[in-house]
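Final report, Chapter 2: Outcomes

The project's central promise was a pipeline that accepts a single protein chain and returns its three-dimensional structure in a standardized token representation, suitable for archiving and comparison. That pipeline is now operational. To close this chapter, we reproduce one record exactly as it appears in the project archive, with the input sequence first and the structure output second.
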Amino acid sequence: MQLIDTHVHVNFEVFQSDLDALQTAWRAAGVSQLIHACVKPEDFPQMRALADYFGPQELFLAVGLHPLDAQLWRPDSAEEILAYAQSDPRVVALGEMGLDFFKADNQDQQIEVFRSQLELAWRLDKPVIIHCREAAPALRQVLTEFQQNTGAVTGVMHCWGGTPEETQWFLDLGFYISFSGVVTFKKAEQVQASARLTPPERLLIETDCPFLAPVPQRGKRNEPAYVRHVAEAVARLRGEELEDLARQTTANARRLFRLPEP
């Protein structure tokens, strides 16, 4: 059985003392490939060094600017992201990008930065990794307008926490939906409902490590090996066998991100 963790942040300091053990654990859990999301473009050289460290065709990369860092956008940020995206064939996506209106007072700035990164993804013909918190209506509007006025762009709503109605909005726009350890939490009823609703061909799983460790590891540092707990929970919610869920989500990840067979 193979699993793909479609959203990790293993460049964070909390992982740097035990990278070898981290890799050994995810391999033992059946994780064959990972997508490393980017918070800020200046993180990219370290991410690329990690991809070199872990070996070929195991850790793949995205590059972009997180909405909570939208204030860091500079006149040359688009060209910087473009250069990084074109510099390494392991870059399979742009992001993470999106909107986060939780406690935010720069909504217009976030929207402009998001649009700029969507334009880059469209030019490069790469999927986007989208962060959305307390901003689904605005994000839906931006994506709809972009698709109507510029062109098709697809990707994944990562660590999804929206309502089933909002889930359907983004499915209708052609997006995949990725579930994290949140789906294992007892009170995450709307996330669990969305996991049941998502068509099998649009379903992905992730850890978003080091955040949001799933039950039974909740409260600990999250890590890629724990994506198996997410897979087990989603399979139970959908009434599916774990092996079938793993096969489907792995195929979906390879299709969306155009990953090679390991």
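Archive annotation: The longest strand covers residues 91-100.
This record, like all others produced under the grant, will remain available to the consortium after the project formally closes.
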